[in-house]
Design goal:
The chain has 15 helices and 33 strands. It is α+β, with helices and mostly antiparallel strands and 724 residues long. Strands 13-14-17-20-23-24-25-26 form an 8-stranded parallel β-barrel. Strands 1, 2, 3, 6 and 7 form a 5-stranded antiparallel sheet that branches. α13 packs parallel to α14.
Length: 724
């Protein structure tokens, strides 16, 4: 097909990038610093037949652009980009390959894997040094021109303060695909998350934000598709402005907007897990789908002495070069689009260290981090970094700038090891329970900077964490070689499912310990969706390719243990939300004092005395008390309110047997009232308060919470089903 220079195409403008409908026509603009020519390719309504190729007439500031005055929303398009095919110098132009617009706001169709998607002749003796002339358009999805207009009505972001945030990580498809209370037509989609049964569950649970695993346009890798699998998690992006079609039940991007509006109405924030560190095009032998064919040398970080190769600091074959101003612009434009047009409330950045890499490595003053910090639109949203990648110096926990929160894997590992019964864990446990101040207490950062979790999408579920000693990933068809080997888990006597009531009882107890510890720690707690329902992946700790019952939530009727545990999770979330002392806005160092002299935090031994430095070094110690003083260090808020609260004693005991624990004397704490006990699924019914100096038989493998009782009258906020 020969391109035409038609009166239909006018000069247009180089900004904004992408396809922009202005009510009269569509402006097309595509960045490429090294291209020699760009063709706009138009397709029929099904994306099957290429109708026309139109050469973009203008090139301004490295942007190819044109204005098609008779174009309308719904038009399907793609690009063909001409230039040198010179892999040795980093250039991989091949106009035989249809390319997706990096700024496409919607995508139609799916990838049909075959050899035409590669710019070189697959199987050729010289592989990528060869050149493939076959047309890839029949195998490619197409970009869609969209009208972004939408009636948001009175939509308002919840603006939940960081200190009150409780994150719930979920997969859009897996969360609703098997829910019988969700209409069949919308199961597995954005619309499915708006079903009344789903919203009711989220609200009754008490979480404040849903964090969606990647929903931007993605590609299922060829080797997975050929094995009957897919990239279920979605960390294989190809379009940073478009929702992936698999989550749109009606094909319209407005479905995403309706979801956000409904979640906001329910008081829930929406956080997107975004993947800007790499793309689905992989390494130098990967397919040519978009960026590689538009300008490989600009978009990707290439090996300086061998630009044929991509620098891979992500483990996915390539790394986007955010030190390039146009690549940085693309990421920033994407973030602003999701906030301004889609009304999302925050982002979790996959492999965040890769985004902050300059030529010399990770840089807290990188272009990306500086751009984020000064942006007035992004200043009001939640920013969460996964603070590592696989490159040199890639582990950067605690080193992101003010305003950022970070996934804290040291919290995860410490809490798992402590409750498993490992030696020498108390000193680190103390740091993790109080917000990991040694990592985050700098530059005015707050305890919420630590996103605490014991489980997430990557690894064992909570149920599997207490049911398996080893991973069981054979369903991934990689010979059980994939996934982490160090899970810090324990099966308590039986690997996997069992009918042994003693084992099941202990597993439930440990689940209560892990969840209670998470929710009563300083910092921002994050729960994995389904953990409250006992979801299992059958021991698979890397279910990234399992779009089936392994990954889906089961909404079948819970047994008695399951109902008890769900009630327990709801109750502990409520306890956290009711009491500011569990979510203090400032780090606890034992220095702030109340009017009666009591310090903000004190660690006590089973003898009822403050723990000494020597005692912290005892490796076999597994029982410790933590006094949280909600009356110390309180400062008025901007509205005149404050975070004043009561005094709580938390006793953690990872030892397997009872430990006699003398309840401590503490200024302002006349009596202690038990309000939470993980040792049993029986609801707490005791009404008497205990005096300081009284010995409490602290159950083994348990967490017990006491609240001060000033007059001996039973505290009226005893947690329902506090043990389960």
């Amino acid at each position: 097909m020969n391109p035409v220079r038609s009166s239909r195409i006018w000069a247009g403008r180089p900004y904004p990038l992408g396809a922009t409908w202005d009510g009269r026509g569509v402006n097309f603009a595509l960045f490429s610093a090294h291209a020699e020519k760009v063709e706009l390719c138009l397709f029929d309504a099904k994306g099957k037949r290429e109708l026309e190729r139109i050469r973009l007439p203008e090139y301004t500031d490295q942007v190819w652009h044109g204005y098609l005055h008779d174009a309308r929303p719904g038009m399907l398009y793609g690009y063909r980009v001409y230039g040198a095919y010179d892999p040795a110098n980093g250039h991989r132009f091949n106009a035989n390959k249809l390319l997706l617009d990096p700024y496409a706001k919607a995508v139609y169709g799916t990838f049909q894997w075959n050899d035409t998607l590669f710019g070189y002749r697959v199987g050729h003796a010289n592989q990528d040094l060869s050149f493939d002339r076959r047309d890839s358009a029949p195998a490619m999805p197409k970009c869609v021109v969209v009208d972004t207009a939408f009636s948001w009505g009175d939509d308002r972001p919840p603006l939940t303060p960081w200190s009150e945030t409780i994150i719930y990580e979920l997969h859009v498809r897996g969360y609703t695909i098997a829910n019988p209370d969700v209409p069949v037509a919308v199961r597995g989609s954005f619309a499915g998350l708006t079903a009344p049964a789903v919203l009711d569950h989220l609200v009754s649970l008490g979480v404040t934000a849903v964090e969606l695993l990647p929903v931007q346009a993605l590609v299922d890798e060829r080797h997975l598709v050929e094995q009957g699998l897919i990239n279920y998690w979605g960390y294989s992006g190809i379009g940073f402005h478009a929702p992936d079609p698999r989550y749109l039940s009606n094909g319209s991007i407005n479905e995403f907007k309706v979801m956000v509006r409904r979640l906001h109405e329910a008081g829930l924030e929406v956080i997107l897990d975004v993947v800007y560190n790499h793309t689905a095009e992989g390494g130098h032998l990967g397919p040519t789908l978009s960026f590689r064919g538009i300008d490989n040398a600009s978009y990707y970080r290439l090996v300086p002495h061998n630009p044929r190769q991509h620098i891979d600091e992500t483990g996915c074959g390539n790394t986007l070069d955010l030190s390039h101003p146009r690549v940085l612009q693309m990421v920033m434009d994407s973030l602003r689009y999701w906030v301004a047009e889609m009304h999302v409330d925050g982002f979790r950045f996959d492999l965040g260290s890769a985004l902050a890499r300059e030529r010399h490595g990770f840089d807290r003053g990188s272009g990306f981090l500086d751009a984020i910090r000064q942006d007035p639109l992004l200043a009001g949203v939640k920013l969460i970094a996964e603070p590592w990648d696989i490159g040199p110096g890639g582990y950067q926990l605690g080193r992101f700038p003010p305003g950022w929160a970070e996934w804290n894997d040291r919290y995860r590992d410490c809490v798992r090891r402590y409750w498993r019964g490992d030696d020498g864990m108390l000193p680190e446990l103390a740091a993790r329970l109080t917000g990991s101040s040694e990592l985050f207490d700098h530059s005015g950062r707050r305890p919420w900077s630590s996103v605490n979790f014991v489980t997430c999408h990557d690894g064992f579920t909570l149920e599997d964490l207490v049911s398996y000693n080893s991973k069981h990933n054979f369903a991934n068809l990689e010979g059980n070689r994939d996934g982490h080997n160090a899970n810090l888990s324990f099966n308590y006597g039986v690997e996997g499912p069992t009918d042994n009531r003693a084992v099941l009882h202990l597993r439930q107890r440990q689940k209560r310990n892990l969840i209670a510890t998470l929710l009563l720690s300083q910092g921002t707690p994050m729960l994995l969706a389904g953990d409250e329902l006992g979801r299992t992946q059958r021991g698979n700790n890397n279910a990234y390719c399992q779009d089936n019952e392994v990954s889906w939530l089961s909404w079948s009727e819970l047994d008695a243990d399951g109902l008890d545990f769900l009630a327990f999770v709801r109750a502990v979330i409520a306890l956290r939300r009711q009491h500011p002392v569990f979510r203090r806005p400032r780090f606890l160092h034992g220095r702030e004092r109340a009017a009666d002299g009591g310090r903000d935090v004190v660690w006590v031994t089973p003898e009822g005395r403050e723990k000494t430095p020597e005692q912290w070094r005892v490796p076999f110690a597994r029982c410790v008390g933590l006094v949280l003083n909600g009356t110390a260090g309180v400062r008025p808020g901007a509205d005149g309110s404050d975070d004043i609260d009561d005094i709580f004693l938390l006793i953690h005991n990872a030892y397997h047997d009872v430990v006699p624990f003398i309840l401590p004397e503490f200024p302002g704490a006349q009596l202690w009232q038990r309000v939470l006990d993980t040792s049993s699924s029986v609801e707490i019914t005791e009404t008497r308060a205990r005096a300081p100096g009284e010995t409490f038989a602290m159950p083994g493998r348990a967490l017990v919470v006491f609240r001060r009782s000033l007059d001996g009258v039973a505290v009226n906020e005893v947690v329902d089903n506090a043990g389960g």
